[in-house]
């Protein structure tokens, strides 16, 4: 009840359009001014599909269908729950409210709870009898080069407590172990290659919510490189590992859970989210990046064409796929650096306008020139390399 009262207080005090202006430039959407528009905050959009209804204080995108009020918007863009969104808004607009403790302490308690939840899954151990059984089975029946190489790389594994009733059910399946950071087997994921669009089936049922596929085998590469790739299914995971990007993990349930965020942050603070350009995937990536950022992670987004990673791998082959992903990642990091310098330049411009002495203004303007020269050089490199990568993609994938 107290949260509902607080929500009403925040909604009455904060204007939705003011919050939207923090992220995008708003334009008049109707003659009366009761509707405002901007490019969508959740997906790549040049058509000003995001509509703000001033009177109702609600928003809706005509493309991705994201909708809600000001609290919903902050939840999605900041990556927090409803209560935290209310506190964020109160901080932004200096609204005095009583808080039940420190938010950072609450966040730490939630992470500790996630850790306990994950540790409950780490009680299943490998059994020598089952290993002997698996060696006698033919786990791979197919001619897909990606899976033929990948399933061996990622290792076969099974948890005794989740063994199907009949061993025959395992023949023709690909089984991937899901382990914790110490290598203890928590369960397995099986993929039925002959059934299209069936995707992944996990045992036990909560395995997909509490684990990240491929994490154990990715730990060394993550620690060495300092960042992790996050993909969304086992096929993309296989493609990345076979091409040498062994710092890749997969989230197989569509949305990153608190437990999975906790696992990621144990090993890396920099996460590259790879997603395709379809609107639903862009929205999911936006919300995922927000939740990771709220948990103090540094996120980057690598947006592909409408082809997923496994499709690109099959089309390009290992060498060209490896080149494409490596170059794309490099450019994503350079884009982030450019954004950082743009922010610094804008901050210096504000400081210069507020400066009173000529000496201070001259120093700030000198710093602006230095950053502007860096930006010009970096923009030239980015334009040239993105152009080359686009040509490369069109040559080896589109045609």
Automatic annotation (TrEMBL):
Gene3D superfamilies: 3.40.1360.10, Zinc finger, CHC2-type domain. Residues 36-90 form the Zinc finger CHC2-type domain. Pfam families: Zn_ribbon_DnaG. InterPro entries: DNA_primase_Znf_CHC2, DnaG_primase, Znf_CHC2. This is Zinc finger CHC2-type domain-containing protein. Keywords: Metal-binding, Zinc, Zinc-finger. It comes from the Bacteria.
């Amino acid at each position: 009840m107290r949260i509902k009262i607080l929500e009403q207080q925040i909604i009455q005090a904060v204007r939705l359009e003011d919050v939207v202006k923090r992220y995008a430039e708003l334009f008049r959407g109707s003659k009366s001014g009761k509707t405002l528009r901007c490019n969508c905050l959740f997906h790549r959009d040049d058509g000003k599909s995001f509509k703000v209804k001033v009177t109702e204080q609600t928003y809706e995108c005509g493309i991705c269908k994201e909708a809600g009020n000001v609290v919903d918007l902050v939840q999605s863009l900041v990556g927090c729950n409803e209560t935290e969104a209310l506190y964020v808004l109160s901080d932004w607009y200096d609204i005095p409210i009583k808080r039940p403790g420190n938010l950072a302490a609450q966040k730490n308690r939630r992470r500790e709870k996630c850790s306990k939840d994950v540790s409950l899954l780490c009680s299943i151990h490998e059994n020598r009898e089952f290993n002997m059984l698996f060696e006698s089975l033919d786990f791979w029946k197919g001619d897909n080069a990606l899976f033929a190489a990948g399933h061996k790389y990622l290792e076969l594994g099974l948890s005794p407590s989740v063994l199907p009733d009949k061993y025959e059910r395992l023949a023709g399946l690909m089984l991937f172990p899901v382990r914790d950071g110490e290598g203890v087997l928590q369960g397995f994921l099986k993929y039925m290659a002959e059934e299209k669009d069936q995707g992944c089936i996990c045992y036990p049922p909560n395995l997909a919510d509490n684990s990240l596929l491929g994490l154990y085998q990715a730990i060394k590469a993550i620690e060495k490189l300092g960042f992790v790739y996050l993909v969304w299914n086992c096929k993309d995971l296989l493609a990345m590992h076979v091409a040498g990007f062994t710092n890749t993990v997969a989230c197989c349930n569509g949305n990153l859970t608190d437990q999975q965020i906790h696992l990621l942050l144990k090993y890396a603070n920099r996460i590259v989210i790879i997603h395709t350009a379809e609107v639903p995937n862009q929205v999911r990536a936006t919300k995922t990046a927000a939740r990771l950022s709220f948990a103090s992670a540094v996120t980057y987004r690598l947006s592909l064409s409408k082809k997923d990673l496994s499709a690109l791998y099959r089309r390009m082959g290992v060498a060209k796929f490896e080149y494409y992903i490596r170059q794309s990642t490099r450019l994503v990091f350079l884009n982030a650096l450019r954004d950082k310098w743009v922010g610094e330049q804008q901050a210096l411009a504000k400081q210069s306008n507020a400066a009173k002495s000529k000496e201070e203004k001259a120093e700030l303007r000198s710093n602006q020139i230095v950053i502007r020269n860096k930006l010009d050089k970096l923009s030239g490199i980015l334009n040239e390399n993105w152009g080359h990568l686009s040509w490369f993609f069109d040559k080896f994938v589109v045609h």
